[in-house]
Amino acid sequence: MSSGERHVILIDQATRVPAYAPNLFLTTQIRKVGASLAWVSANAYCLAALYRFLDWRRIDIQTRFHAGHYLEEHELDSLRDYFKQNQNTLQTADRQPSKQKGKKGTAPKEWVANETQAKKLRVSAAYLAWLARRCDSDLVNSDKISAMEDQIVARSPSVKNKNKGLEERDLTDEQVDYVLDIIKLDCPRNPFSARVKTRNRLMILLMYEFGIRVGELLNIRISDFDFQNNSLRIVRRADQQDDTRQRQPLVKTEDRPLVLANWLIKEIYDYILNDRASLKLAARCPYLFVTHKSGPTQGQALSISSYNKVWHVLRETSGILFGVTGHRLRHRWNYRYSKMVDDGVLQLNEAEEESSRSFLMGWKPGSGTAKIYNRRHVREKANAASLKLQRQSHRDLRTRVHDDEKS
What are the counts of helices (DSSP H) followed by strands (DSSP E) for the chain? Predict the structure, then answer.
């Protein structure tokens, strides 16, 4: 939009025009409450899935609602079962599992996670209830509408341990060593072309050294650096008008200043002065990381999809990096931080450790997020304590046996 805000529009594939009711719902019920673009997009995907289901079952939902008729039990069961299936495995109008293969000849995933299914059902329930009440202006059937909404939500699968396994998202020492080695400019295994080697190395180093998110990384402007004081400021810039990217990288966390070591600020300065400056069109772009590839987008701010390609290229170099993404460097940063506290490199008590970690990560104090990202380290400490207890027990048992033999 002219204000810089990004919004989502659902298009009817049959008519190629915006679908009125779903877009009205997204605008008045989701966007209006200040929801982020990511949240609006997530709701839009759920509504798209709902309308694919209604099309498959040949249900004209608004005609139904105007007549005072609502989804029946067997249709709600069918909706639940439909949302269990991965949309990428459904083809044509009959929605039979696709025979196409996924990447590298692997079969695509057939079922979605419980969280995804539950999200689709909850959004569908809220939308259908909203639409039904619009069609029934006198609210004669208000109880029936509420009952339909409750029945849809009741079919949601239970979602437990949402954050379970977060500690496993950290990189292994082997993966870290491999990444840091392969991005060296003189490494013969470096998979990047000469014109983007420096840029890609710098992006990965910033994520490794500060644990920043991709939105924070791609949102960095040259003006955010204070080269005299070796500092970088992470700034929230939602709905930025001069950001030409359709999918704007956003800072989810709080604004904060970060201090950079001399060697790192030098690498940043060299990149700006040499590699980036060699692109004439880049002088018009305020963002640090730009597209180097020749073409109409050269010199423009690097997009999220282009950033993702960097990690795709890295993963292709070795099976060691299977499933690795840049966000896992955020988990690695928190693991490194915890180790430094335990080893005495950082002299901090428990409260100071959590508050300083929250500040550097951009979390609100007391949010509890620090504990989530610290689970791997907590697990390692717990396992070490358990082994110590077992060794003590073994010594105690041997002492008792020895005393018994004496007596």
Answer: 15, 5
